[in-house]
Amino acid sequence: MPTSTHTATMTTLFSIIESPGHPRLEALYQRMGITQIKLPSQRKALQALKHSAPDWVMAEFFYGFGNNYAGANVCNLDVLLASLRKQAPEARVIVLVSKEQAQYVPLLAERFPLHAVLTLPVTETDVEAVLAADAASR
């Protein structure tokens, strides 16, 4: 069987790494045939969205306690998720959240579809379960 077929269906994951708590799962992604695109900020992720549409986005949730998100936005992910709606509507979003901020995630889920919410610290097994369950259902 030609390998080009596999390459054409390669799954892409935007991994937005904004803190040391974000899991490093390169080996898992490689085993699962997922191309990881590491992005150091929401701003870089928005720029990357202009060039490619990911199948998955994994990002950390930071609730907007201060004035930065007052009113229109719940957290750091609002702008990215609004952009995904337009530029990559099929992308599935995995949100990583601390135990202390988990209570605020439902506010985000009211506005945007979230495929999975994982509480930090997240293990390779946690992420593999989400990715494998989705692959099995497709």
Question: Any overview of this molecule?
Answer:
The protein is an alpha/beta fold and 138 residues long. It has a single domain, classed as Rossmann fold. Helix 2 links the parallel strand 1 and strand 2.
Keywords summarizing the entry:
alpha/beta; Rossmann fold
In short:
Helices cover 36% and strands 20% of the residues. It is α/β, with parallel strands linked by helices.
Dominant shape: globular
CATH topology: Rossmann fold
**Distance N to C terminus:** 21 Å
Average residue pLDDT: 89
CATH architecture: 3-Layer(aba) Sandwich
Question: What order do the helices and strands come in, and which of them pair?
Answer:
Elements (H helix, E strand, L loop, with lengths): L2 H6 L2 E6 L9 H6 L2 E6 L2 H8 L6 E5 L17 H10 L4 E6 L7 H5 L6 E4 L4 H14 L1
Parallel strand pairs: 1-2, 1-3, 3-4, 4-5
